[in-house]
Here is the input.
Amino acid sequence: MSEAAKTTRLAGTPTEGQGIDYPGLALNLVGLVAGVAIWWALTAGGAVGLPPPPQVAARFGDVIASGQLATDIMSSLARVLTGFLLGVILAIPVGFVMGWYKVARSLIEPYLQFFRMIPPLAIIPLAIVTMGIDETPKIFVIFLASFLASVVATYQGVISVDKTMINAARVLGAKDMTIFLRVIIPASTPFILVGVRIGLGSAWATLVAAELIAAQSGLGFRMQQAQLYYDLPTIFVSLITIGLLGLAMDRILLVIERRLTVWQERV
Amino acid sequence: MAPKIIFDNVTRRFDLQDAAFIALDRLSLDIADGEFVTVVGPSGCGKSTALNIAAGLLKPSEGTVLVDGKAVEGPGPERGMIFQQYALFPWLTVRQNVEFGLRIKGEEASRRREIAERFIDLVGLRDFADALPKTLSGGMKQRCAIARAYAVDPSILLMDEPFGALDALTRVQLQDQLLDTWSRERRTVMFITHDVDEAVYLANRVIVMAARPGRLKEIIDVPLPYPRTEEIRLSAEFMTIRNRVWQAVYHQ
Here is the structure.
């Protein structure tokens, strides 16, 4: 193929992720409906001891009407977002410093690798003892989880920036600061965004356990209450809500990621 | 006239675990202003090492490289470099890539645009000025890199196997385009290649290097006139010179 023809074809291809995949969406929907149907069929006779879909739907209606769901969502979201944002905001500069300065990397890395091996949940007893039982320890645990997940991705991103690209900037007259701002930051953006998404996943994963610490509201707290009263529909409501909220936030990040990295060659 | 680039007894060693490896052994070489010099040799002959030292990306262990009589201390915009892997910034469009060096120089927007436009036209990428590198073919990417190097107005172009990753047809096209660009915007060129035909077709002089340790072996003049054409490429004189270079490279 001639160079020009090749380029025209490539330029004519819609950017990845922009076209809507209708058959794919239809299949997603079929899968969802089938899943609910199987759930219904299995629970219809009360055989497995789980609540059938209508009962869970009814409970959804109740907690929405009473405003309890909204309160729980607000408390949980506030915790997740505060912890997650603090974690990511700290992780990005720390990751950059580690990637850029070898001295900083050598100083920080042992701690990072060590704390990565401790599940954030294992920090909870320590957090309660040292921080009490208000919001601080809950947010701290979520913060730690998302920080550890995204700092590694950021610093991997910085150290994997193509050396030839840095040399290209140098021979064009760029000094260290310019290289950092105009080459390192954009080149590592895809890695950072992956780190942010992993961080968000970790934040959600830690939420329920963090709400074990004497919470008064929240989706995780509600589930634990329900567990005491053998209230299965409420547990289902909380689980589904956590799943949906996590999914929605992940999709939002995915859209942002696509926007910021249109320039990337995707295979 | 004083030479543009002088390699004065340049040696470069790399320290390995148990032994020092000599990548380049006492290279001395003068390149005249406006000359097109190609450097050819087997891998490990130190040709890229020599180029990187001239670019200021690598320090010599001994000896110096002088450009316009001044010792090279680091990279500088008067020495443009073109890499085999293009090294374009993928988040910038063709135009923004070409403007990158101008921005660092502190040129104002209108002037940047004007200069970028001129070199984008020169390499024939006018229709792709606002395209991202991922939509370009390999040959177009390299043309963009050439425009980017030219834009900061270097007096020297250092080219490290720039066409090494391209298919044979595109390679021949780009050789002609490079010579065309060079004849209109004359610069001193030091061009590394492992392709004997390419080395002869482009150059005023072919520098043949030998490996282990990397050193200068022979300098072969190419007294063929510019512009070089297909006729020249297929001529008997070309073949004679090509055979001499081939012998020098492969029978070391």
Q: What stands out?
A: The mean pLDDT of chain A is 86. The two ends of chain A are 20 Å apart (CA to CA). Chain A touches chain B at residues 3, 6-7, 10-11, 162, 164-165, 167-174, 178, 182-183, 186-187, 189, 262-265 (CB under 8 Å). Chain A has two domains: 12-50, 51-260.
